[in-house]
Amino acid sequence: MAPENYEEYTAEQLQEYLQYAGNYLKTKGMEFVSDELHLDPENPEDIKRFIAIAFAEHGDPKTKSNPRQVATNTPGDEGDSRGPWQIRIPTWKKILEKYDIFDGYESLEEALDRPELNAIAAVIVAQQGTVEKRGEMYDGINNWETVMDTELDENDEKQLVTDDPYGIKKGNTPIYEGTENFETQIEPPQGQMEEETKQIKEFVQENTLEEEAKSIPVMKRELLAAKRGSLFSDPDTYVAMINNRLQEIDGSGINKQTREALGNTDIDSLSDGAILDLYTKHVHPYVAFSSVYKNLEMEGSGDNIIDISHNTGFDTNAKYYDTKIGSIIPGKELRDKEKQLEDSIYRYYKGRLGEDSLNNLQQVYTYLLRQRHPFIRMEGNVELAQPTSTSNNEPQGQNIQNSEMGIYNKYQLPEKKPSETFLNNWEMVTKVGSNNQTVASQKPQQDTAKDFINIQGEE
Fold it and tell me: What are residue 249's DSSP bridge partners?
């Protein structure tokens, strides 16, 4: 079963991450080989095979298919295998640690849970044996059990069980359904890119993106307003990333959810870490969905906002709270860690802008919510005993999207009764059932489900 904050990835998103991986590995001097066992992340046919492997890793072992046509970041092998391509850490740790992009994370598990870094690892695995042969069972895609099923004998030697159980080498098998649902991005010539970059930098020098710093007292005030159900404007539309999808919800729906989630929480008594935790889960994920982002009016296709966001970067003298890992990071460290993949991500979203104004708005906000919004610029001193959140900056998607579930938090107090006033300052953790959802639930109004519209399309 997927963890509560799992993400899903379509063929289009997996191709996007493979493109990032290829761009990064080329800067490290890797030359890609494409043959039966080795996959090139820039070759459309090989991209389909990469996607088929990810689908197989999260597919149905009985039917050898993936009816939902998605991969997830659900850990496998008791936590040893991570991300959409299920990279097995004990096997690949030494090789992956040679690449600096995996530095700066508390663990390799944390790094490989990021889909773009997981894609880099997948390409590295898929290129094994191109320089020095390692033996058929250890070359390229044969390292995935969904491609070559093996087992260890009494001498710890690999023995073949089934070759190509999902038909990934063969192609045109059920696991390939949906793997073609992506568009290959074509980069402009180098000279054109340099001229475009020069023009964009000149434009950005005259336009800035306001970056509001948040202090714990400000977050506390916003949480108190959210607890009253008055923080968000009822008629306005907001967007958030839920299960890796951009989704819309109106302000009244968010106010209802936050009122239920925070209604019995003594916010004034919480620690800095608890305030950050609640703010990250119940307030920060939502951004007003309009043609104005912060101080910038969207012009044309919206590329002006993407340009300014991309070229402004993070303030190297500031501190940021990374909502994905629950830690405070210096701006310089954050900029160094993000910049290696940022250029390709930026070009990808620029390439998706076109004539459709609604699509453009969706792409701009998807870019912002993935690249900028997970990092909160902090003001003042913050005391954190330990990382406070691993929520990937997403609302609890499983609970929010299920109209029969309320939203709860672990800082809620029990319901007050006349004979239980001595419990007023007790913080309790909500009991969780076997399906990772809270046991208690409330019956909502029948029309709350319509608040959510998946504007990225159904899987």
Answer: 238
